[in-house]
Amino acid sequence: MTDFPELYVLRHGETEWNRALRNQGSLDSPLTAEGRDHGRAQGRLIDALGLRDLPAFVSPQGRAVHTAELAGLDAKQDARLAEINMGDAEGMLRQEMRDRWPDLGPTDENPFGWYFLLPNSESFDALVERTTSFLNDLTEPTLIVTHGITGRVLRGVYQGLDIKGMRALSIEQGRIFHLKDGAETIR
Q1: Cβ(39)–Cβ(70) below 8 Å
Q2: So what's the pLDDT on residue 110?
Q3: Per-residue pLDDT tens for 47-88?
Q4: Could you give the CA distance from residue 6 to residue 184 in angstroms, rounded to a whole number?
Q5: pTM
C-alpha cells in the first residue's frame, strides 16, 4: 500500500437518473431535491469537522460540481475523478441493460459485473490507473467529490483492497468517507 495523505471523499448527491435506476457513467442528470439536500448536509459536516480550509478536488461532471457548490467547496476540477464510462449502456435503465446483456452480471472473478464488461466501457485496470495517478499527486489532507464506482475504486486503492473488497464499499450519498492510515470510517 502506498502512503497517501488523509482524505475526505464525498459522493455526489442523488440525481434524477440515480432515482430512476438509469446508468449515467459519463453522461449527466440533475440532482433531485434530496440530492441537493445531500450536498448541503455534506457542507454542514465539513464545517462540523473543521475541514473547510482543506484543498478540494471535484469530478468535472455536473452532478459532482453541483454537489461541491452546495457543500460550499471551492474545488478544482480533475478529470481523473470522473465516473466510469459505461460504454454502450450509458443512458439505459439498469433493467434494459440486464435484459440486453444477461450474461454480464456479477461473478466471483468480477464482482462489479457489467460495469467493466459492457461493450466500449472503461476497464477496471484503466479506472485503477487513473485513480492511483490522482492519489499519487496528493501531498496533504484533501477533500474529494466524485462518484459511486470511481469513489469505490479510489477508496479501495487507498486501502489496498482487491476488486471484491472495493465492490463491498458503501456508496451512500450524503456522507463523507474519511480515509486515514489505510483505513476508512463513514461520517
Answers
A1: yes
A2: 78
A3: 999 999 999 999 999 999 999 999 999 999 999 999 999 999
A4: 10
A5: 0.95
